Amino acid sequence: MSTKKKILITAGGTGSGWRISKTVKQYFPEEAELVITDTNPRELVAAATIADAFFQVQPVNDPSYAENMYSLIRREKIDAIIPLIPWEQALFAQDCAEFAALGVTSASPLMRTESLLNDKRNLYDFCRKNNIPTVPLYRPGKDGFEIEDDADYVLKKRDGFGAMGLRHIRGTDLKAQTEQIDWEETVLQPDLRGRGDLPGQIEEVTVEGYCDGKTVSTFVRQRLESKSGVCTKAAFPKLPGLQERVEHFTELCEFPPAFNIQFAKCDGEWLVMDVNLRIAAGGGLSEAAGFQLSRALIAYLLGYEVPKAWLTPDPSVKHVLRVYQEVVVR
């Protein structure tokens, strides 16, 4: 009888799913079995080529998704789960009664943390309440805000992630479309391109974080280029103060073991732009530089100690570039 623990990775067809799956197989071949789920069939999921088991599932927004996943977890005797889609995190939270009854360890945040920080409007209110500098949110006709014709703005989905629903818009166009926009599901921010030290671009960094409940380890990744909202070229600047800012966040609410916080520079100040309660899609660039967040997360879920060396980046690394990898399916 196998003593290996079964780790389930959802959305295994994503780039993050592929990277984490490879980490399981590279560093924990004797400790873990890899189970993958995805909405695509097996032949279209790269991680399925190295998984011990694969299951095609419905989309997250399908009404039967939760119960079918709980059934799969029971049937396959899953020990730990790494959910990669923010919209499913609450389903696999340790304070979700139905999931907790399964006795499975999860990389998801608690439901109360997910509700507080995955929702951009709630995140903004949280930052304001705790005096954390953050990118402003506007509501046309509310709180004295009026759209300026010659100003540039950004529209985002309130619960979106990556570049989902992101749209740059001029003030004159925004005025003309205001009545058609669902303001309950959309947030409006100033366009920060050119407000940092990069002419015509938004200057932003992602702080990757690992939190074991006692200590917090971080690594700063600067986005030099992105495609479809995912970092493809990165530098790793030393930015004093951001480690303390992230630690402050983890003192105010309970964070999952792996997460990241995005900051944008505006007129000389770093502002919180987004909080992602999961491993970043661009996190592989930080891992290549020595901040092995996926490896630390898997060890945490398996109940092993995480050596400090795994979260100590190589100081000689200046840049990391992402290229595609071809995976043959037979």
Question: How does this model look, in words?
Answer:
The chain has three domains: 5-108, Rossmann fold (3-Layer(aba) Sandwich), CATH 3.40.50.20; 114-131 and 197-321, ATP-grasp fold, B domain (D-amino Acid Aminotransferase, Chain A, domain 1, 2-Layer Sandwich); 136-191, Dna Ligase, domain 1 (2-Layer Sandwich). By secondary structure, the chain is an alpha/beta fold. The radius of gyration is 20 Å and the shape is globular. It has helices spanning 15-27, 65-76, 97-100, 111-117, 120-129, 171-177, 242-252, 283-288, 293-302, and strands spanning 5-9, 32-38, 53-56, 80-82, 105-106, 152-157, 167-170, 186-190, 204-211, 216-227, 230-235, 258-266, 269-276, 319-321. The strands form three sheets. A six-stranded antiparallel beta sheet has the order 13-12-9-10-11-14. Strands 3-2-1-4-5 form a five-stranded parallel beta sheet, with helices on one face. Strands 7-6-8 form a three-stranded antiparallel beta sheet. It is built from nine helices and 14 strands. The model has no long low-confidence stretch (mean pLDDT 93). The chain is 24% helix and 25% strand. A hairpin with a 4-residue loop joins strand 9 and strand 10.
